[in-house]
Design brief:
single chain, alpha/beta, five-stranded parallel β-sheet, 10 helices
């Protein structure tokens, strides 16, 4: 996506954007959530000028698909993420132009070139940065993070040039990276001080996932913390807390992310782990919003793109209601945190409410002290593992490792809190399917038949807010 000329942006004024006869909405961040926000603002307000700034040199791309690009399942054009829809000259995009300062008093932002851009409303979609462990040797050559398109291009070269790559971190990104980096010509070791997916699986489910990774040729070193990276100029050896060592010639760091809050802190916005926001995604300044991985709602930071998209819905409609009081807007109440893994040809997912704590061995707790019940189907020969968490005859969570052609229907059932008949659960434990021949006849009436998806989430997520309830008008 080409950068537009400076002349297409509104003429900068130091007294704020209020001197114009149309609203100016500025979005900082060209990741998937920032792009979605700009698109929604253009759609919902036909008079507004929308200006979006990106810090990266590349045109907007879908960061969620980087693992698939790394594994060559997608091409570069497949991850392109332009702002689509009718613009009518109302959109200005600036690529490779990070915002360095926010002047809240004058309602302007200043970019890296020194240019000043006024705003009526400002949306921060600054995302997050990779967390780099503070261990000796992390600055050596051939030690790479995996977060951006530029990182991904580096890893593609790394995969072809190195015999043994160690991926540090066994979260969703680490699992995907290990699978994408493995070829017939190299060794890949997946290392983590904790269990796979931070112990969100029970022991049996993790065993199935380990077997799937082993079938891909990925070696595992789990439960031993990395303490040092050794080498002269380039990495040669890893040292662990147990005293063991591992010879390797490349390291990929998938050791978590942290919200990008520097810009917000510098201008005096309230921050904690992220930029603290209300149910309308407003920060402590009502004219500034934050969405996506940089935002902290009800003391929670979401590290997935879907919650960011849901935040954009509430945020953009709240912004645009000022000029259109008939626009329906619902406050944000929190999101489910589904994890869908793209591990080569092995589909895996964790869906819905699965945070039940951990047992003494560090695995997900499978005890049923809250009245919920677990239903499990397993087929070791086919490498299939499927588990449902059911409470009061409603599916509230699920795990599957291996293909499941009902997965899409299952996600909808969890999101809509659909009740499930006992005979369907019996069929599931016997055959691994809930809907025989994809028929919904075994479902009882949905308790959410007249609710919207966002209202459903309101009923299921802690609605405690960092600010008093705001007006939608």
């Amino acid at each position: 996506m080409a950068e537009l000329e400076d002349s297409l942006a509104p003429t900068p004024v130091h007294s704020g954007a209020s001197e114009t006869d149309y609203p100016i909405f500025v979005v900082v961040g060209t990741g998937p959530v920032g792009v979605r926000c700009a698109q929604k603002l253009l759609e919902l307000n036909q008079d507004a000028q929308v200006v979006i700034f990106g810090a990266e040199a590349e045109s907007p791309y879908n960061r969620v698909k980087l693992s698939q690009y790394l594994s060559e399942q997608l091409s570069l054009s497949d991850i392109d993420n332009p702002i689509i829809g009718e613009r009518n000259g109302r959109l200005a995009e600036f690529i490779d132009r990070p915002i360095l300062a926010i002047d809240r008093a004058n309602k302007t932002v200043t970019d890296a070139t020194g240019k000043i851009q006024p705003y009526s409303k400002l949306v921060l979609a600054t995302g997050s940065n990779p967390t780099i462990p503070r261990i000796p040797g992390v600055e050596l050559e051939n030690v790479h993070p995996f977060r951006s398109l530029r990182n991904t291009e580096n890893l593609i070269r790394l995969r072809e040039q190195n015999r043994h790559i160690c991926v540090v971190g066994a979260g969703a990104l680490g699992l995907e990276a290990a699978a994408a980096l493995k070829t017939q010509k190299n060794r890949v070791t997946l290392q983590s001080r904790t269990r796979l997916l931070s112990g969100m699986l029970n022991e049996e489910a993790e065993d199935y996932l380990k077997s799937a990774l082993g079938a891909l040729g990925i070696e595992l070193k789990i439960g031993d913390a990395l303490t040092a990276i050794k080498g002269d100029d380039s990495v040669r050896q890893l040292q662990f807390a147990s005293g063991e060592t591992l010879e390797t010639d490349a390291v990929v760091l998938c050791t978590g992310i942290h919200p990008e809050t520097d810009l917000a802190r510098q201008c005096g916005l309230k921050t904690d782990r992220g930029i603290v926001v209300s149910e309308w995604l407003q920060t402590s300044d009502p004219d500034i919003y934050a969405v996506g991985e940089c935002a902290e709602f009800a003391q929670k930071v979401y590290q997935f793109v879907r919650p960011g998209y849901e935040q954009v819905e509430s945020c953009s409609k709240h912004i645009c209601r000022e000029g259109n009081p008939d626009l329906s807007a619902e406050p944000y109440r929190g999101s489910l945190t589904d994890i869908q893994l793209k591990i080569a040809h092995i589909p895996c997912a964790l869906i819905g409410e699965l945070d039940r704590g951990k047992n003494s061995s560090g695995y997900a707790d499978t005890s049923a002290t809250d009245g919920s019940r677990l239903f499990t189907y397993r087929n070791r020969f086919k490498g299939l593992y499927r588990q449902l968490l059911v409470k009061d005859n409603y599916i509230v969570g699920a795990v599957h490792i291996g293909s499941w052609d009902e997965a899409s229907d299952l996600r909808k059932a969890v999101a809509r809190s659909e009740s499930i008949a006992p005979q369907a659960l019996q069929q599931f434990e016997r055959d691994g399917y809930l809907w025989q021949k994809k028929s919904p006849s075994v479902l009882r009436n949905s308790r959410t038949a007249t609710w919207s998806a966002s209202a459903t989430m309101s009923a299921r997520v802690n609605s405690a807010q960092p600010f008093p309830r705001a007006s939608a008008s």
